[in-house]
Amino acid sequence: xxxxRAILHADLDAFYASVExxxxxxxxxxxVVVGGGVVLAASYEARARGVRGGMGGGQAARLxxxxxxxxxxxxxxxxxxxxxxxxxxxxxxxVEPVSIDEAYLDVTGLERIGRTPAGVGAWxxxxxxxxxxxxxxxxxASTRMLAKIACGAAKPDGLRxxxxxxxxxxLRARPVGAVPGIGPATMERLSxxxxxxxxxxxxxxxxxxxxxxxxxAGGWFHRIAHNRDGTPVRRGxxxxxxxxxxxxxxxxxAPALVDARLLGLADRVTRRMRxxxxxxRTITLRVRFxxxxxxxxxRTLPLRTAESAVVLATARELLAGVRGEVAARGLTLxxxxxxxxxxxxxPLQLALPLDEDADGTWPDEPDDPRAVDEALDAVxxxxxxxxxxxxxxxRAGAAPPAWLGPADLVEAADGAPRSGQSPASSPA
DNA sequence: TCTGGGGTCCTAGGACCC
DNA sequence: TCTGGGGTCCTAGGACCC
Length: 428
What we know:
Blueprint: E1 7-12, H1 15-23, E2 32-34, E3 41-42, H2 44-47, H3 57-63, E4 68-70, H4 74-91, E5 94-99, E6 102-106, H5 117-131, E7 136-141, H6 144-154, E8 159-161, H7 167-172, H8 184-192, H9 198-202, H10 206-213, H11 215-225, E9 241-247, H12 255-276, E10 280-289, E11 294-305, H13 308-321, H14 323-329, E12 331-341, H15 372-383, H16 390-395, H17 412-415
Parallel strand pairs: 2-4, 7-8
Antiparallel strand pairs: 1-6, 1-7, 2-3, 5-6, 9-12, 10-11, 10-12
Helix pairs in contact: 4-5, 10-11, 12-13
The chain binds a DNA duplex through residues 15, 35, 37-40, 52-56, 58-59, 98-102, 180-186, 214, 216-217, 239-247, 250, 282, 284, 288, 292, 294-300, 332-333, 335, 337, 418-420.
């Protein structure tokens, strides 16, 4: 059976709530809700009453008035997650964490040393329960996708490892919504063609699926229907973006207060980036209006940055671009994200050439050519940048004057990393 | 369901270059 | 000068996940 893999998906049940119940005997057996304004996690006792993650606190209270609401203790969750991960590392050579409470394990070939997938799964559950005191559900199959579906079917506190001969029957009996990656919108599209289960999908030829849903989606539907998911389990995937956002309530919000939130977000994002030694080129502003419709505006800088002032200045500009919309429709959320992360040794943009106080004029061309250097220094000072690029100036709406030759500007090729030329990002 | 915060990936059009 | 094709980058939005 060359090529057949064995994948486990392990998921801590109601993770935050389980940690709270573990640490406070009085909470055991009772409905527990973690988080105040919004439900971050609900214990299974609370779920039985209809409480769900992401739900507003008020609604949760109506559904389950006797629930105990506790504030999240992030340190405890991070510590528990790290201990569980260490146990997983003992169980399998390849472990891919996907979130604080979830991971994939590749246990292919371990049967040669007497460890079956089901045996590893049972061992994991037993040791996590004994050493960390938390319930863990494990699903197993020959693909990631099916391992995750099996895990979902085994919850809570269960183990379900599919035998190879049972996989297709199990898969095809599931509703399409059970497939990770198929959400409400995709379910709706499939439903319009009379497709409700994975079995319905499997009954259609690939050409039909491609004709209906396009090459990418159609091909993917066909592959999952036949349990062909070759996505490998790999450790240490590099992060692609850093972001932070803040809900504002219905408002109205004074511009100065919005600006203060923006500043706080830029600070938070860039501090996390600097801690990780990362920097990025694309700044994205996210705005949600009073009617809860959300838009994004983004700008790509010539050089990477992890500086709060640069991110803030860019976000302010982007926000100014939608000022009219915000004034008319109100504002309920602002967010800032930085993507376009590059290798750590690429040059950094130290500060953006945006100066709100600048009057938009350049120094006159110096009569004495020797004074050009001085003028350039003045320009650098005005724009507050060490890496003065033509692109940066143009983007800032500050076309360089004719007397400033290309040689006076740092060409983008010197600094701005072009994708495809820079080495792939190393794992964060 | 009167609505948090953190992410990933995909699509599509336009600009620009060769 | 006109026409064409292909590739990359940027921007905006959407879907999905925990």
